[in-house]
Each structure stands twice: as structure tokens, then as C-alpha cells.
């Protein structure tokens, strides 16, 4: 209920702005259009407004309220189904009844990834060693257990970007080698090249001759056009004269193909162990790994197999990853406040953790209802810094996520850029005050331009492609679904292989750089 001062202020501003409803509501942040029109008509009729409101009698009885809430709990906890069957009340009114009687029904879950900070003494010692080093910066970075860009960022932070990263020392120049020795070396190189050409021509001659003797091929046939079985027979006939590398290179025959044709009669199935390992990897990782990640994961089983073989074996074993589907929740409610500059500008590369954060909201619709996910993704390695799951896309969903993320950088002097779309959640007072108090930098995409937040959209796509779309969620409650999504995100941070990180997960990558324990 609005006070008399709030109502009269709104009416006077409405008259001052030329009776423009939209402009008035955007400046004040209240009320609705119909409410403001009602206040204006009352002011015109009476030249004033009532001092207060008389609360109307409740439209619904206690019995009706309890019956509606009990129907919701007994019939699958679906608000839309309950309202459709009973015919009352509105969604907002029913949600209020439900929160009053059962506040724990619509739950939400919060997660946070760990963060590691280095003391100032460590930074100073590392920068000093960098400036007077006799070795490479990469070795110093490994010694301090950070990545090389982080080491240079410390240098820029302490000494400024204009300071040199190495104090150069003068060394005595070495004399030039004797010109005569150079001539002898060049002549020897020419002799070696000529001998190599002679050997290559002799190899071509012998291949044609053996092809005619063994395979009854015409002397004009090109050995490279033969089948792999025929090529293998030629290699076996000439490998006592030439090296295997030379023969395979001349015939353009892969080593795997040669050894396969040599041993296929002795081996019942060369890839029996690989087939079992591939099936185990595929089914234990949400059935979402393609041939590249399968191949990287096979290295943990000490199985070194080419990508083409992995593709063939996956096809034979019917291990097919699902394809991407595009579907998303939209939270755009118009330009309710001025939008900040698009600082990220599609540059999703970060040299250090907590430099650039991306956030958005996505929707999951299952038979039991709808669930909303609000994460913060670090551009450094794709780590999900914090995330919140709930059944309503309200301000509490994003504010709780932001509070959790801020806790990870409270001890750090640097403040990340937080990039989002133009959704209403990122323009409400609660979000703006948290950003201001934490001294975080805001950045927003252009209106209706999802590629400006492509990296976060990519995370949603991977999550839905690998977890959501391939599964049947019939009979799964909202609480169980929330637990499943939370477990996936933790697996995504700690175990899921990213090829761009050297076949490591985000947490494993940070441990390899010494950024986390």
C-alpha cells in the first residue's frame, strides 16, 4: 500500500511530464499504469487524494485458501494445473498463499567454486626474480605455481606497464665462424641431399618392380593407388632393404594400417579393451562426450588411439552424443533504467581468474514444473564460480548468486567485470546496490543481441545438450531435478574435460597452474 506522499508525488510528476505514463513509472519505479490513472482521476475530481486506503474484505475464505494449497500439494505441485482445475485465484495470489503456509516447498540451492589469493610478498619476490632473471619467464611462473600471463600482470601491477620485464645485460659478441668451414658444411649438405634423392629414386624403382613380381601389376601403376593390403605386402618384401619409415612414407600408408593388416589374422579384436573403456567413459559422463573427449579420456586408460579409429569404434558401438537444441528463458522487460556500456564487447578471453564474469538466466521445463538456473561463469577457464537454482526467476535468485560470488573475491584487490544481458533482474535496486557496494564493474549486451553474451549461452547449450535433452524427466520431482543440475555443475567444474584446457577440467587446470589447492 502506498502512502499519501507517494501517491501525490506520482500524480504531480505525471502532470509535470505531460501525462506520460511510461516516463513517470520509469522515474519512480511505481505504480502500475491503471493504478496511476485511478489516482489521477481521483485528484481531478476532488483536487486531492484520500489520506489512506480502507482495506477491502478478503475475497477468499480460509477454507478456500487451504483447499487450493492442499490440491497443489496432492496433485503434482503444478501451479498452472491447480489454477486450471479450481478456477481461482491468480498465480501471484496463490504463490502468496503457498509461501505463507509452506515456505519450504519452493526451494533453491546455492553453490560456489573455491578461489585462491597470493600474498603481496610472493608477488614482489616473483616480480624481482622476473626482472633480474637468467632463465625464462615460464620457468619462474612454474616455480611460483602461476601461469605466465599472471606473472606479467603482477609486474604491471607493482611496477607499471611501462617498466621493462627484463634488465638487459651486455654480453661479448661471439666471432663469426670461418668462411672456409661454412663452405665445407654447405658442400656436405649438397652431397647428403643428392644421396637422398638417389635413394628415393631407387626406392621408387624397387617398388614398381616388386609390384610387378608379387601383385602382377603393370609397371606403370602408381603404388600409392594400391589398397592397404597390397601396400603391406610390398612393405614386407622390401623392409630388409629400406627402413619401415621410408616405405610407409613413399606408399602413403599409415603405420596403424600396416600393422593392422600384418596382425589381423592373429588378433581376434585389436580394440576389445578400447571398446569397453569407451562405453564406460561415455555412459559415466552423461552420454555427452564426442570422439575428441573420448580419445582424451582413453589416455587415462593408457589407450592411445587415433581420432579416426575412435570415430569408427563409436559408430560400431552406437555411442552417439546428442545434438544441440536452442531454447531459452527471456527476462527482458524493456528499458527500465539506463544500460551501462558493453565493456566486454565479445572479448571473452581473460588472462587471470576473476577478471571477467558472465551471467544469465536459463529455464528448464519438466513435467513437474519449471526450474531456473542463474550462474556466474569465469572467462579465464569456464569455471562456474557460483550458481543458484530455484523455481522462480525473481530477484532473490540472482541476488543470492551474486552474494555468493562476491565472497570469493572479498580478499582480492581486483574487481571483475560482470557482464549480463538487458534482463530486468540486472537493473533492479537489489542488484545495483550489491554491485556498487562490492565495487564491481557492470557491462551489458546490446538490446536483443545474444552473441554479446555468447560464452554464457554456450555453457547453457552444453548443459542442456549433455544433461537435459537426452533424458526423460517424467516422474522426477522439482527437488530431484535441482539436485541433478547441481551435481552436473559440480562435475562440470571438477571432472569434465575441456580440450581448450589441455584435456583438463577447469578445477584441474587451476591446480596445474597453482591457482588452487
Question: Can you walk through the features of this model?
Answer:
Mean pLDDT is 83; it is low at 170-175. β3 (362-366) and β4 (369-378) form a beta hairpin. The chain has 517 residues and is α/β, with parallel strands linked by helices. α4 crosses α6 and α7 (120-131) packs across α9. It is built from 21 helices and seven strands. The protein has six domains: 4-46; 62-105; 120-159; 179-263, no CATH class; 272-316, no CATH class; 356-512, Nucleotidyltransferase, domain 5.
Question: Layout of SSEs?
Answer:
Layout: H1 4-16, H2 21-28, H3 33-46, H4 62-74, H5 79-86, H6 91-101, E1 109-112, H7 120-131, H8 137-144, H9 148-159, H10 179-214, H11 228-238, H12 244-251, H13 255-263, H14 272-284, H15 291-298, H16 307-316, E2 356-359, E3 362-366, E4 369-378, E5 384-390, H17 395-407, E6 417-420, H18 429-437, E7 441-444, H19 454-468, H20 478-494, H21 506-512
Parallel strand pairs: 2-6, 6-7
Antiparallel strand pairs: 1-5, 2-4, 3-4, 4-5
Helix pairs in contact: 1-3, 4-6, 7-8, 7-9, 10-11, 11-13, 14-15, 15-16, 17-18
Amino acid at each position: 500500500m502506498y502512502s499519501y506522499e507517494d501517491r501525490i508525488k506520482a500524480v504531480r510528476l505525471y502532470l509535470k511530464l505531460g501525462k506520460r505514463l511510461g516516463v513517470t513509472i520509469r522515474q519512480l519505479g511505481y505504480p502500475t499504469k491503471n493504478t496511476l490513472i485511478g489516482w489521477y482521476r481521483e485528484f481531478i475530481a476532488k483536487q486531492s487524494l484520500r489520506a489512506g486506503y480502507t482495506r477491502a474484505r478478503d475475497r477468499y475464505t480460509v477454507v478456500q485458501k487451504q483447499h487450493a494449497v492442499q490440491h497443489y500439494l496432492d496433485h503434482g505441485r503444478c501451479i498452472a494445473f491447480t489454477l486450471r482445475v479450481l478456477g481461482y485465484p491468480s498465480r501471484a495470489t496463490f504463490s502468496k498463499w503457498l509461501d505463507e503456509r509452506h515456505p519450504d516447498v519452493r526451494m533453491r540451492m546455492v553453490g560456489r567454486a573455491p578461489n585462491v589469493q597470493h600474498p603481496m610478498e610472493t608477488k614482489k619476490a616473483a616480480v624481482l626474480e622476473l626482472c633480474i632473471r637468467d632463465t625464462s619467464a615460464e620457468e619462474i611462473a612454474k616455480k611460483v605455481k602461476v601461469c605466465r600471463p599472471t606473472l606479467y600482470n603482477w609486474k604491471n601491477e607493482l611496477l607499471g606497464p611501462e617498466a621493462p620485464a627484463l634488465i638487459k645485460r651486455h654480453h661479448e659478441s661471439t666471432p663469426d665462424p670461418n668462411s672456409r668451414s661454412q663452405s665445407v658444411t654447405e658442400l656436405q649438405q649438397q652431397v647428403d641431399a643428392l644421396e637422398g634423392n638417389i635413394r628415393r629414386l631407387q626406392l621408387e624403382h624397387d617398388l614398381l618392380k616388386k609390384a610387378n613380381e608379387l601383385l602382377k601389376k603393370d609397371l606403370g601403376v602408381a603404388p600409392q593407388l594400391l589398397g592397404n593390403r597390397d601396400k603391406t605386402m610390398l612393405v614386407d618384401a622390401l623392409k630388409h632393404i629400406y627402413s619401415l619409415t621410408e616405405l610407409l612414407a613413399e606408399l602413403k600408408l599409415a603405420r596403424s594400417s600396416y600393422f593392422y593388416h600384418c596382425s589381423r589374422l592373429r588378433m581376434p579384436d585389436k580394440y576389445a579393451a578400447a571398446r569397453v573403456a569407451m562405453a564406460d567413459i561415455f555412459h559415466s559422463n552423461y552420454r555427452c562426450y564426442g570422439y575428441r573427449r573420448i580419445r582424451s579420456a582413453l589416455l587415462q586408460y593408457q589407450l592411445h588411439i587415433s581420432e579416426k579409429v575412435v570415430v569408427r569404434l563409436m559408430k560400431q558401438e552406437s555411442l552417439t552424443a546428442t545434438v544441440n537444441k536452442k531454447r531459452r528463458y527471456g527476462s527482458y522487460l524493456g528499458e527500465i533504467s539506463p544500460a551501462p556500456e558493453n565493456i566486454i564487447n565479445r572479448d571473452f578471453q581473460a588472462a587471470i581468474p576473476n577478471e571477467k564474469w558472465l551471467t544469465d538466466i536459463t529455464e528448464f521445463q519438466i513435467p513437474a514444473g519449471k526450474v531456473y538456473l542463474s550462474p556466474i561463469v569465469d572467462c579465464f577457464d569456464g569455471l562456474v564460480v557460483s550458481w543458484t537454482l530455484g523455481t522462480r526467476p525473481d530477484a532473490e535468485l540472482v541476488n543470492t548468486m551474486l552474494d555468493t560470488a562476491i565472497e570469493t573475491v572479498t580478499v582480492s584487490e581486483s574487481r571483475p567485470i560482470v557482464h549480463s544481458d538487458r534482463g530486468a533482474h540486472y537493473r533492479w535496486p537489489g542488484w545495483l546496490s550489491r554491485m556498487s557496494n562490492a565495487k564491481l564493474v557492470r557491462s551489458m549486451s546490446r538490446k536483443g543481441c545474444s552473441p554479446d553474451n555468447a560464452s554464457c549461452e554456450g555453457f547453457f547449450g552444453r548443459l542442456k545438450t549433455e544433461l537435459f535433452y537426452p533424458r526423460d524427466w517424467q516422474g522426477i520431482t522439482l527437488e530431484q531435478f535441482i539436485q541433478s543440475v547441481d551435481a552436473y555443475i559440480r562435475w562440470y567444474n571438477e571432472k569434465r574435460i575441456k580440450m581448450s584446457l589441455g584435456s583438463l577440467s577447469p578445477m584441474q587446470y587451476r591446480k596445474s597452474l597453482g591457482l588452487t589447492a
